[in-house]
Amino acid sequence: MLGAAALTAGLSAPASAVAERTPDPYGRATLTGFSSLPAETFVPHSEPSGSAIGAGPFNGIAAPFAAQPVQGFSGIVNRHDGTYDVLSDNGYGGKANSADFLLRVHRIKPDTRTGKVTVLGGFNLSDPHHRVPFALTRADRVLTGADFDVESIVKAYDGTYWMGDEFGPFLLHFDAWGRLLDAPVSLEGVKAPENPYLNGQAPTLGGSKGFEGMVRSVDGRHLYPLLEGTVTGDTPGDLRLNDFDLRKRKYTGTHWTYRLESPSNAIGDAIAVDKHRFLIIERDGGQGATAKFKRIYLADNRDRDGDGLMDKTLVADLMNIANPKKLGGFDETFTFPFQTIEDVVLLDDRTLAVLNDNNFPFSSGRTAGKADNNEFITIRLSDRLHADWRAFV
Which positions fall inside the Phytase-like domain (predicted)? Predict the structure, then answer.
């Protein structure tokens, strides 16, 4: 609470001042830190993986693997001690090829002075209490990438974790050791093709287009899971940010609409700035030379212009970051040219940490023909966000 009090004094602005402020366009963000985890990093003493993806080689890496890769960072939680919990997604991109990939949260410690990221440990996700009512891949009920595609994670104020899945889409509630506490929570009227409850009905969402981002409200009472895909019947490129009441354990029926700059774009992550404003990663599907659009927007659900959409302000262009100190050995213009960028976290009122999902071993955005590392960067915005102090805890 001492840290929270300090943040209150240093970061909060009067509510009326924030509400009345119309953000000016942000300028160029600046790279303040760079570190990376080698692509071929594996969980010690773990099971083999990758038997269903083919022999490859993929970007010079042959499969299967003798152990579980530490890869696919698709969600992040700041532990406020210099370490972070990062979530691996379903493994290799689909149900059919990910049954031997164990869903896991890793604890990492990035050091931007040395440029290295250290993996300190982590825990697998499991369902020992039989909360999942449909069949799982493994008899021991350790969860795999054939069961769920977990893409977003928040830590509730009670110390438990909530994760967003893309196959249902479902909300999943875990304890601090990764054990499922409740049955998966469905979103009424929204089903992906992988949903086990389709029963011959047509899906209303594209494949693996479920909860790519998920926000914890600053008061800790709500979750706002953001779909990656457009629900059938909605305008192409419109994504629903849904409201889930944590105390009642149900959706309120309210949602807001985030419109992509292009229907072919996708979102990567979403976090709260205050009661009404959120940082959202929006990206194209390119990598390397074909990567053009990788941005972070400040989205406001108050819809000041009355068009029925969340208002958007660009705060950082990840393809045009100033790097005057040439950190990481890169040029004075730093780019983050990865296909999937799925992690953002607030460090202070002007500093963000951003991570990529390296889709191991398939993505090669940094160097053509070479599997991407998991990179952890920090960037300083050109202006303050005027964030609620609770967004940092």
Answer: 68-360
